[in-house]
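Hey, I'm writing a tutorial for new members on how sequence and structure tokens pair up, and I'd like a real worked example in the thread rather than a made-up one. If someone can provide the structure for the chain below, I'll link this post from the tutorial.
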Amino acid sequence: MDQAPSDVLILEPGQLPPSGTLLPPRTPRWHDTLAYIANPDQFCRTHLAQYGPIFRTGVFGGTTVFLGSSRAIQMVFNGDTRYTEIGLPATTMAMFGEYSLFQRPDLHRQRKSALRPAFTGTMLAGYLPHLHRVIEQHLQTWNTTSPIALVPLVEQVCFDALVPLLLGIRLDQDETIAVASLPIRSKADLKRLYKTFFDGFYGLVKWRSPLTAFGRGQQARSRLLEFMRSVIQQRRTAPNPLEPTADFLSMMLANQQNDPTGIFSNALIENQCLLQLWASHYEITGLVASWIYQLGQHPEWIEALRAEQSCVLAPLSNLSQVSSEHLRAMTTLEATIKETLRLLPPTSTANRRLTCSIVLDGTLYPKGWTLIAEPRIAHRQAAYFANPDRFDPERFLPPRNEGKMYEFIPFGGGVHACLGAQLAMTMTKVFVIHLLHQFDWTLLGEAQFVQFPLKIIRNNYQIQLKSTIRHHPTSVT
């Protein structure tokens, strides 16, 4: 298990810090929240250059310390139940709901351990045939005669791939959901509700009114939970027995059947269906789109990836046979994905509130302050990454092996590390091996990004595709 640095000094109530202890630099300012929301990248890079990797802000109210040094990140990731608690804004916690993994720290490890099998190991490997089929079917419809809007098309693929894996329901090609009695029948309506739900997470006012982002998000959350309850009821009453390894919801329902008073209550199942589809869909869409953009800027890596793909997959007759072992063997592919996550991390990875005052490396962090582990700072440290502003996937390969624990943090760390990290990496790999097989692409100008709460390319950004298929579309070589 990860541990905080052994020399974290936890101060007792009334205990003074050692002589010479200093507060982090910079004085919080009233407009910090607005500046950060407007452009987190610029906010972090400007203050990193001026103050170093640890500095104070007023982001989200009170005093919030941004952390980008590996020892400070290790401290914040591994302080839960000892000197930290979840420190997300009240609006965000309300949107997550009572049964999210961020609630009930006394049950967190038990809940997360119970959920983890759906996103790792045998179950994750079992998702591959479905991912291959959906991704290939979608890519065969992508237009090569005129520019395409990148993010909307990637989003369609991710949504259609993830819904059956997480909820176990079928999506029809005509944009409907193939269960007639559900309260939401249109994929477009379901996605619109998710967008409204997502927008409510960082509403600045916790006011349940349709006039506020939070209020609209809460209304969307209620409708989405109603949808999840209907899906769950359909799955329970289906004539076929549950297959526990088929999808995320099946796993939870099977566990509930085996232990009705156990961890999988109805409320937990509903909330996890809601949150996992939301998190996986947005995170993977953003990652895949960013990868396509980065490789479009650095096409020299595309040929290296195709060479690796041809070597690793040489014995196969088609891409649908690509297994977890093949994916693990494509180390250059993984390095390009990691480098994309390093340069374009989607969001900050930890918000913790100090439950007592602590001292680390001569710096005092008083009780009540919030700490944010910020990859936008850590990933730009020259001490951790040579030429940090350069796209250089080789940094993640031997002999360099950059990106050590607490220095490379796209999925967080500690007990609250992202549950779906392996699913995100696996689905991105499957997506891009099919993309590399079928297309070359040209970027049409510089992309503009939505900066907050999730960094993602704007919907209007376009690329031009060119087909590379000169033979049977399922052939590997």
